[in-house]
Amino acid sequence: MAPFLALVAVTLTCRLLGALGVGYVQTWPDALAVGLAAMFLLTASAHFLQPRRDGLIAIVPARLPQPGLIITATGILEILGAVGLLIPSTAAPGIRTAAAVCLAALMIAMFPANVRAATGQRHPAAPHTPLVPRTLLQIVFIASAVFVAVAA
């Protein structure tokens, strides 16, 4: 739930700042890009900080080798994607779009781990969101990334 709250709070704060004249976030897509970046920086932190890291390692599907390396790699990808979202389309055309598309694809690729966390064996530090709410949140996150990609 914390990632969703970060997405909503940062997006709305940015949109308010945009309404007050801050040019960087004067549109909904720009504000949402910053909100997504904040959300991904928050989720990326769990890939590196204990005890959440161990919880994430525990939900990597068993058929995948080196779960620790996978968690590190996906955390780095989340950070890189967040940075890409913060680059305005006017500064580097295509970067924000590419970042949003790649993050949407990453969320789809990581969804089996979320299913495992919701339905499988529990690790005390693993995410504990039940499957239906987790799926709905994932849809919101992916739709937000697609919206930013299309609007960029």
Describe this structure in words.
With 152 residues, the chain is mainly α. It has one domain (2-151). The protein contains six helices and no strands. It has helices at residues 2-19, 28-46, 52-59, 67-85, 95-119, 131-151. Helix 4 packs antiparallel against helix 5 (95-119). The radius of gyration is 16 Å and the shape is elongated. The relative contact order is 0.15. The mean pLDDT is 92. The chain crosses the membrane at residues 31-49, 69-87, 93-111, 131-151. It is found in: Membrane. This is Membrane protein. Keywords: Membrane, Transmembrane, Transmembrane helix.
The tally of strands reads 0
Query: Given the C-alpha coordinates, what overall shape results?
Result: elongated
Q: Helical stretch count?
A: 6
Tell me the helix content: over 70%
Poorly predicted spans: none
Q: Note the run of SSEs as H and E.
A: HHHHHH
Q: In percent, how much strand structure appears in the residues?
A: under 5%
The residue-averaged pLDDT reads: 92
